[in-house]
Amino acid sequence: SKIIFFTLCAVWLYSFALQAQNPLILDQYTADPTARVFNDKLYVYPSHDILCTEDKGRVGWFCMEDYHVFSSHNLTAWKDHGEILNQTEVAWADPSGYSMWAPDCVERDGKYYFYFPTKPKDEKGFKIGVAISDSPEGPFVPLEEPIAGVNGIDPNVFIDADGQAYLYWSGGNIFVAKLKPNMTELASEPQIIANLPQEGLKEGPFVFERNGSYYLTYPHVENKTERLEYAMGPTPEGPFTVTGVIMDESPTGCWTNHQSIVNFKDQWYLFYHHNDLSPDFDKNRSIRADSLSFNADGTIVKVQPTLR
Ligand code: FUB
Predict the structure, then answer these.
(1) CA atoms within 13 A on the CB side of 290
(2) Taking the CB of the first residue and of the last residue of the chain, which one, N or C, has fewer CB atoms within 10 A?
(3) ipTM greater than 0.90, yes or no?
(4) Minimal CA–CA distance to 157: which of 105, 214, 210?
(5) d(Cα 279, Cα 271) in Å, to the nearest integer?
(6) Average pLDDT for residues 161-186, to the nearest whole number?
(7) Which of 104, 115, 126, 203 to mutate to test the pocket of ligand 1 (most atoms within 8 A of CB)?
(8) Which residues contact 192 (CB under 8 A, 6 or more apart)?
(9) Distance in Å, CA 8 to ligand 1 centroid
(10) For the sheet containing 141-142, what is the strand order?
(11) Closest by CA position to 206, among listed 115, 92, 276
Protein backbone atom coordinates (compact mmCIF):
# COMPACT_ATOMS: atom_id res chain seq x y z
CA SER A 1 0.00 0.00 0.00
CA LYS A 2 3.01 2.31 0.55
CA ILE A 3 3.95 1.84 -3.11
CA ILE A 4 0.43 2.75 -4.22
CA PHE A 5 0.45 5.81 -1.92
CA PHE A 6 3.80 7.08 -3.26
CA THR A 7 2.78 6.38 -6.86
CA LEU A 8 -0.43 8.36 -6.38
CA CYS A 9 1.55 11.22 -4.77
CA ALA A 10 4.00 11.22 -7.69
CA VAL A 11 1.17 11.28 -10.26
CA TRP A 12 -0.54 14.09 -8.36
CA LEU A 13 2.67 16.15 -8.13
CA TYR A 14 3.46 15.53 -11.82
CA SER A 15 0.00 16.59 -12.97
CA PHE A 16 0.18 19.64 -10.70
CA ALA A 17 3.55 20.59 -12.22
CA LEU A 18 2.13 20.28 -15.75
CA GLN A 19 -0.96 22.31 -14.89
CA ALA A 20 1.17 24.91 -13.19
CA GLN A 21 3.16 25.58 -16.37
CA ASN A 22 0.66 27.92 -18.01
CA PRO A 23 0.91 30.82 -17.80
CA LEU A 24 4.69 30.72 -17.78
CA ILE A 25 5.42 33.95 -15.90
CA LEU A 26 3.42 34.83 -12.81
CA ASP A 27 4.99 38.00 -11.39
CA GLN A 28 4.39 40.35 -14.33
CA TYR A 29 2.30 40.55 -17.50
CA THR A 30 3.96 39.24 -20.64
CA ALA A 31 2.73 38.96 -24.25
CA ASP A 32 3.84 38.27 -27.84
CA PRO A 33 6.44 35.62 -26.94
CA THR A 34 9.25 34.95 -29.39
CA ALA A 35 11.00 31.79 -28.24
CA ARG A 36 14.55 31.06 -29.43
CA VAL A 37 17.13 28.44 -28.55
CA PHE A 38 20.57 29.90 -27.89
CA ASN A 39 23.40 27.83 -26.38
CA ASP A 40 21.04 24.90 -25.61
CA LYS A 41 18.80 27.12 -23.49
CA LEU A 42 15.30 28.29 -24.34
CA TYR A 43 14.99 32.09 -24.29
CA VAL A 44 11.71 33.96 -24.53
CA TYR A 45 11.55 37.56 -25.66
CA PRO A 46 8.03 38.80 -24.87
CA SER A 47 6.41 42.20 -24.75
CA HIS A 48 5.89 43.52 -21.23
CA ASP A 49 2.35 44.75 -20.52
CA ILE A 50 1.83 47.24 -17.71
CA LEU A 51 -1.22 49.33 -16.82
CA CYS A 52 -1.60 52.73 -18.45
CA THR A 53 -2.54 55.58 -16.13
CA GLU A 54 -3.71 59.16 -16.81
CA ASP A 55 -0.08 60.32 -17.12
CA LYS A 56 1.29 57.18 -18.73
CA GLY A 57 0.08 56.04 -22.15
CA ARG A 58 -3.58 55.64 -23.08
CA VAL A 59 -5.85 54.26 -20.37
CA GLY A 60 -7.65 51.13 -21.55
CA TRP A 61 -5.08 50.40 -24.26
CA PHE A 62 -1.76 48.50 -24.49
CA CYS A 63 0.99 50.02 -22.36
CA MET A 64 4.56 48.83 -22.82
CA GLU A 65 7.73 50.71 -21.91
CA ASP A 66 10.43 48.03 -21.78
CA TYR A 67 11.41 44.42 -22.44
CA HIS A 68 12.66 41.62 -20.21
CA VAL A 69 14.12 38.32 -21.41
CA PHE A 70 13.44 35.01 -19.69
CA SER A 71 15.29 31.71 -19.99
CA SER A 72 14.66 28.12 -19.02
CA HIS A 73 16.35 24.73 -19.27
CA ASN A 74 13.09 22.80 -18.88
CA LEU A 75 10.18 25.18 -19.73
CA THR A 76 9.03 24.97 -16.11
CA ALA A 77 11.57 26.99 -14.13
CA TRP A 78 12.06 30.45 -15.66
CA LYS A 79 14.76 32.99 -14.95
CA ASP A 80 13.99 36.66 -15.52
CA HIS A 81 17.20 38.34 -16.70
CA GLY A 82 15.67 41.75 -16.03
CA GLU A 83 15.11 44.72 -18.29
CA ILE A 84 17.05 44.49 -21.54
CA LEU A 85 15.76 47.66 -23.22
CA ASN A 86 13.63 50.66 -22.23
CA GLN A 87 11.91 53.17 -24.53
CA THR A 88 13.95 55.95 -22.86
CA GLU A 89 17.15 54.41 -24.28
CA VAL A 90 15.92 54.56 -27.88
CA ALA A 91 16.96 57.90 -29.39
CA TRP A 92 14.31 57.89 -32.13
CA ALA A 93 11.41 56.62 -29.97
CA ASP A 94 8.59 58.76 -28.61
CA PRO A 95 9.28 58.87 -24.86
CA SER A 96 5.55 59.05 -24.22
CA GLY A 97 4.80 56.23 -26.66
CA TYR A 98 4.53 53.23 -24.28
CA SER A 99 4.36 51.16 -27.46
CA MET A 100 7.25 48.71 -27.23
CA TRP A 101 5.23 45.99 -28.98
CA ALA A 102 6.04 42.45 -30.13
CA PRO A 103 9.82 41.85 -30.49
CA ASP A 104 12.16 39.22 -31.91
CA CYS A 105 15.80 38.28 -31.35
CA VAL A 106 18.20 36.33 -33.59
CA GLU A 107 21.86 35.42 -33.42
CA ARG A 108 24.39 35.95 -36.18
CA ASP A 109 28.16 35.50 -35.90
CA GLY A 110 28.08 35.68 -32.11
CA LYS A 111 26.01 38.86 -31.93
CA TYR A 112 22.38 39.02 -30.86
CA TYR A 113 20.04 41.29 -32.79
CA PHE A 114 16.89 42.38 -30.98
CA TYR A 115 14.14 43.80 -33.22
CA PHE A 116 11.35 45.88 -31.72
CA PRO A 117 8.57 48.14 -32.96
CA THR A 118 7.65 51.41 -31.33
CA LYS A 119 6.26 54.85 -32.09
CA PRO A 120 8.80 57.31 -33.49
CA LYS A 121 9.19 60.83 -32.08
CA ASP A 122 7.94 63.07 -34.86
CA GLU A 123 5.91 60.78 -37.09
CA LYS A 124 2.69 58.83 -36.96
CA GLY A 125 2.64 55.04 -37.03
CA PHE A 126 5.31 52.59 -35.99
CA LYS A 127 8.94 52.00 -36.98
CA ILE A 128 11.15 49.02 -36.25
CA GLY A 129 14.41 49.36 -34.36
CA VAL A 130 17.38 47.07 -33.76
CA ALA A 131 19.40 46.74 -30.56
CA ILE A 132 22.58 44.65 -30.43
CA SER A 133 24.26 42.63 -27.71
CA ASP A 134 27.08 40.12 -27.26
CA SER A 135 24.77 38.00 -25.09
CA PRO A 136 21.19 36.75 -25.49
CA GLU A 137 20.59 38.15 -22.02
CA GLY A 138 21.59 41.69 -22.97
CA PRO A 139 22.16 44.48 -22.28
CA PHE A 140 21.13 45.49 -25.80
CA VAL A 141 22.36 48.75 -27.29
CA PRO A 142 19.84 50.30 -29.70
CA LEU A 143 20.90 51.84 -32.98
CA GLU A 144 20.39 55.59 -33.34
CA GLU A 145 17.84 55.21 -36.16
CA PRO A 146 15.07 52.72 -36.98
CA ILE A 147 15.41 50.43 -40.02
CA ALA A 148 15.04 52.61 -43.11
CA GLY A 149 12.15 51.71 -45.42
CA VAL A 150 10.11 49.83 -42.83
CA ASN A 151 6.82 51.10 -41.39
CA GLY A 152 4.93 48.68 -39.19
CA ILE A 153 4.90 46.39 -36.18
CA ASP A 154 5.69 42.83 -35.11
CA PRO A 155 9.15 42.27 -36.64
CA ASN A 156 10.29 38.69 -37.22
CA VAL A 157 13.64 37.64 -38.65
CA PHE A 158 14.29 34.30 -40.31
CA ILE A 159 17.80 33.25 -41.38
CA ASP A 160 17.71 30.60 -44.08
CA ALA A 161 20.21 27.74 -44.36
CA ASP A 162 22.11 29.64 -47.09
CA GLY A 163 22.70 32.51 -44.64
CA GLN A 164 20.24 34.97 -46.19
CA ALA A 165 18.23 36.77 -43.52
CA TYR A 166 14.65 37.97 -44.11
CA LEU A 167 12.70 40.55 -42.13
CA TYR A 168 8.92 40.11 -41.90
CA TRP A 169 6.59 42.65 -40.33
CA SER A 170 2.97 43.71 -40.40
CA GLY A 171 1.38 46.95 -41.46
CA GLY A 172 -2.09 46.20 -42.81
CA ASN A 173 -0.57 43.37 -44.81
CA ILE A 174 2.37 41.15 -44.02
CA PHE A 175 5.61 42.30 -45.64
CA VAL A 176 8.97 40.66 -46.32
CA ALA A 177 12.35 42.05 -47.36
CA LYS A 178 15.85 40.62 -47.42
CA LEU A 179 18.29 41.94 -44.83
CA LYS A 180 21.91 42.86 -45.54
CA PRO A 181 24.52 40.76 -43.70
CA ASN A 182 24.78 43.58 -41.13
CA MET A 183 21.20 42.61 -40.11
CA THR A 184 20.23 46.26 -39.71
CA GLU A 185 19.43 47.40 -43.27
CA LEU A 186 17.12 46.15 -45.99
CA ALA A 187 18.76 44.51 -48.99
CA SER A 188 15.59 44.40 -51.12
CA GLU A 189 12.37 46.33 -51.60
CA PRO A 190 9.60 45.32 -49.20
CA GLN A 191 7.03 43.01 -50.83
CA ILE A 192 3.51 42.30 -49.64
CA ILE A 193 3.11 38.58 -49.09
CA ALA A 194 0.41 37.51 -51.52
CA ASN A 195 -2.45 35.03 -51.16
CA LEU A 196 -3.09 35.62 -47.44
CA PRO A 197 -6.67 36.26 -46.29
CA GLN A 198 -7.94 39.55 -47.73
CA GLU A 199 -10.47 40.23 -45.00
CA GLY A 200 -9.66 41.01 -41.39
CA LEU A 201 -6.57 41.98 -39.47
CA LYS A 202 -3.40 39.98 -40.06
CA GLU A 203 -0.34 40.65 -37.92
CA GLY A 204 2.42 38.98 -35.93
CA PRO A 205 4.26 37.07 -38.71
CA PHE A 206 6.56 34.30 -37.53
CA VAL A 207 8.40 32.13 -40.07
CA PHE A 208 10.18 28.84 -39.55
CA GLU A 209 11.42 26.02 -41.78
CA ARG A 210 10.91 22.28 -41.42
CA ASN A 211 11.90 19.58 -43.92
CA GLY A 212 12.33 22.11 -46.74
CA SER A 213 8.92 23.76 -46.24
CA TYR A 214 8.60 27.32 -45.02
CA TYR A 215 5.77 28.05 -42.58
CA LEU A 216 4.46 31.61 -42.35
CA THR A 217 2.36 31.77 -39.19
CA TYR A 218 0.19 34.77 -38.25
CA PRO A 219 -2.73 35.80 -36.03
CA HIS A 220 -5.82 36.67 -38.08
CA VAL A 221 -9.09 38.19 -36.91
CA GLU A 222 -11.84 36.71 -39.03
CA ASN A 223 -14.53 36.89 -36.39
CA LYS A 224 -13.89 38.61 -33.03
CA THR A 225 -10.52 37.57 -31.67
CA GLU A 226 -7.25 36.44 -33.20
CA ARG A 227 -6.95 32.90 -34.46
CA LEU A 228 -3.45 31.54 -35.14
CA GLU A 229 -3.20 30.46 -38.77
CA TYR A 230 -0.45 29.46 -41.18
CA ALA A 231 0.50 29.29 -44.81
CA MET A 232 3.16 27.08 -46.38
CA GLY A 233 5.56 27.82 -49.19
CA PRO A 234 8.67 26.55 -50.98
CA THR A 235 10.88 29.59 -50.21
CA PRO A 236 11.06 32.20 -47.41
CA GLU A 237 9.40 34.71 -49.77
CA GLY A 238 6.68 32.31 -50.89
CA PRO A 239 4.55 31.85 -52.81
CA PHE A 240 2.59 30.87 -49.72
CA THR A 241 -0.64 28.90 -49.64
CA VAL A 242 -2.99 29.32 -46.70
CA THR A 243 -2.93 25.90 -45.08
CA GLY A 244 -4.74 25.83 -41.76
CA VAL A 245 -5.36 26.87 -38.18
CA ILE A 246 -2.80 26.38 -35.41
CA MET A 247 -5.01 27.55 -32.55
CA ASP A 248 -8.66 28.56 -32.51
CA GLU A 249 -9.92 31.88 -31.21
CA SER A 250 -9.59 32.51 -27.48
CA PRO A 251 -12.37 30.68 -25.60
CA THR A 252 -12.66 33.59 -23.13
CA GLY A 253 -12.36 36.50 -25.54
CA CYS A 254 -8.73 37.72 -25.29
CA TRP A 255 -8.67 39.89 -28.40
CA THR A 256 -5.02 39.29 -29.37
CA ASN A 257 -2.93 36.20 -29.67
CA HIS A 258 0.66 36.10 -30.93
CA GLN A 259 2.79 33.05 -31.65
CA SER A 260 6.25 31.67 -32.18
CA ILE A 261 7.18 28.06 -32.90
CA VAL A 262 10.44 26.52 -31.78
CA ASN A 263 12.12 23.13 -31.60
CA PHE A 264 13.75 22.55 -28.22
CA LYS A 265 15.39 19.23 -27.33
CA ASP A 266 13.65 17.47 -30.26
CA GLN A 267 10.15 18.65 -29.37
CA TRP A 268 8.24 21.40 -31.13
CA TYR A 269 6.44 24.03 -29.03
CA LEU A 270 3.95 26.78 -29.73
CA PHE A 271 4.43 29.89 -27.61
CA TYR A 272 1.44 32.24 -27.47
CA HIS A 273 -0.44 34.39 -24.99
CA HIS A 274 -3.76 34.67 -23.24
CA ASN A 275 -5.00 36.85 -20.40
CA ASP A 276 -4.98 34.26 -17.60
CA LEU A 277 -3.85 36.70 -14.89
CA SER A 278 -6.15 39.52 -16.00
CA PRO A 279 -9.46 37.98 -17.04
CA ASP A 280 -11.28 41.35 -17.06
CA PHE A 281 -8.72 43.34 -19.07
CA ASP A 282 -7.27 41.65 -22.12
CA LYS A 283 -4.41 44.16 -22.66
CA ASN A 284 -2.61 42.63 -19.66
CA ARG A 285 -1.58 39.29 -21.04
CA SER A 286 0.44 36.25 -20.02
CA ILE A 287 2.63 34.03 -22.14
CA ARG A 288 1.98 30.32 -22.47
CA ALA A 289 3.47 27.31 -24.25
CA ASP A 290 2.11 23.98 -25.45
CA SER A 291 3.60 21.11 -27.42
CA LEU A 292 3.00 21.14 -31.15
CA SER A 293 3.18 18.30 -33.66
CA PHE A 294 2.96 17.75 -37.39
CA ASN A 295 0.98 15.38 -39.57
CA ALA A 296 2.85 13.12 -42.01
CA ASP A 297 2.19 15.61 -44.85
CA GLY A 298 3.85 18.44 -42.90
CA THR A 299 0.65 20.17 -41.86
CA ILE A 300 0.34 21.29 -38.25
CA VAL A 301 -1.92 19.47 -35.78
CA LYS A 302 -4.17 22.09 -34.19
CA VAL A 303 -3.04 22.95 -30.65
CA GLN A 304 -5.59 22.92 -27.84
CA PRO A 305 -4.48 25.38 -25.15
CA THR A 306 -3.91 23.70 -21.81
CA LEU A 307 -5.88 25.46 -19.13
CA ARG A 308 -4.77 26.11 -15.59
O1 FUB B 1 1.26 43.54 -28.03
C2 FUB B 1 0.80 44.57 -28.85
C3 FUB B 1 0.26 44.03 -30.12
O4 FUB B 1 -0.84 43.18 -29.85
C5 FUB B 1 1.22 43.14 -30.87
O6 FUB B 1 2.20 43.84 -31.54
C7 FUB B 1 0.26 42.38 -31.70
O8 FUB B 1 0.82 41.27 -32.33
C9 FUB B 1 -0.79 42.03 -30.67
O10 FUB B 1 -0.42 40.95 -29.88
Answers:
(1) 18
(2) N
(3) yes
(4) 105
(5) 19
(6) 98
(7) 203
(8) 173, 174, 175
(9) 42
(10) 104-108, 111-118, 127-133, 141-142
(11) 115
